[in-house]
Write a structure and sequence with these properties.
By secondary structure, the chain is mainly alpha-helical. The protein is built from 5 helices and 3 strands. The protein has a single domain, classed as L-fuculose-1-phosphate Aldolase (3-Layer(aba) Sandwich), CATH 3.40.225.
Length: about 120
């Protein structure tokens, strides 16, 4: 997965894939013990997102609003990337420097969508 949308610029460092079978062998795909947790954390490294093969993804951040922001825009980027690939043309992803710059400017806006998402969740 690569960032192609400014709101998912935080993906610019890359998105590793966690393969649970490398540590746990055949499992039910859930991280259920400390060894699997350490392996997932090792796979994640210093990245904000890792894909979990056959499971989904994991997102980390310093705050809950930022984690939710990253989770939502990781999913948005995945849909956009899938659609762009299906169109068959060349895809121009965000350059790492572009990603860093966009991430820095967008980081200050996280609380605006957070308030909206929080309100929607409370109203549901």
């Amino acid at each position: 997965m690569k960032p192609l949308y400014h709101m998912s610029a935080f993906l610019h460092p890359g998105v590793p894939v966690f393969e649970i079978r490398q540590t746990g062998g055949m499992t039910d795909m859930l991280v259920r013990d400390p060894d699997l947790g350490r392996a997932l954390a090792h796979s994640l490294g210093d990245k904000p997102v890792a894909l979990m093969r056959g499971h989904g993804n994991v997102v980390v951040a310093a705050t809950i609003p930022l984690a939710v922001f990253r989770a939502i825009y990781t999913e948005t980027n995945a849909r956009l990337q899938m659609q762009a690939i299906s169109l068959g043309g060349p895809i121009t992803y965000l350059d790492p420097e572009e990603g860093r710059m966009a991430e820095a400017s967008i980081g200050a806006t996280v609380n605006r969508p957070w308030e909206l998402w929080k309100r929607r969740a409370l109203d549901a």
